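Exercise 7.
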Amino acid sequence: MSPALQARIARVRIDGRDLISDIALDVPAGRWTSIVGPNGAGKSTLLRAIAGLQRCEGQVTLAGRPLPDWTARARARQLAWMGQQETGADDLTALDVVLLGRLPHRPWLAPPTAADHAAARQAMDATQSWAWRERRLGSLSGGERQRVLLARALAVQAPLTLMDEPLAHLDPPHQAEWMALVRERVAAGHSVVSVLHELHLALQADHLVLMADGRIVQAGAPADPSMHAALKRVFGPSLRIVQLEGRWVALPL
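Solution. The predicted structure, written as tokens, is:
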């Protein structure tokens, strides 16, 4: 099966500084890929580059076509984005924010259709955010806001979803629900890429990408012993990776 996305990036340079360089990334189709690394490793910069939101030197290929060959609308139907600390929609209701995810599916200035509302309702039910659909985004707590933004990404119904720190402000039960949603999407044939600080959850992904100092250190199966060794090298000797009830977890020594 061809990768959902491929990136060959020489560098991303911002304010005279290379934030990432020498990147070769293949995102497996129909899998959950998680990107991890210390603060400042370049994780968010890489995610923005492969989403087409950050200029880079190199080439990103989406579903077999270079990213610039896609029209903005077609790319938005193919690739859904959930960024961190997004602003600008605080005066909109939660439902209106989620309906923004349906813009690529309807003509310019056309009102939402019944199908759009159905997709938004389905996404908000999945993230348990339907109850506050009439509330302004700016009035929601951090966790509530995060679940609305996740619903907006889900409402796009794109084959590939990119999420930058989607678990920020979410308590453990809602983190578990997020992981269940990701698993449902993957089971349905979709691809998901997430940047996570929660290493214990990232280890549950199908494919792990480890970054440090703006480069990919290793990519592969989270259960691979060589991946565990690389994680310890990058995060330090205080990291312990053990198997608990069939799952790999990361613990401090």
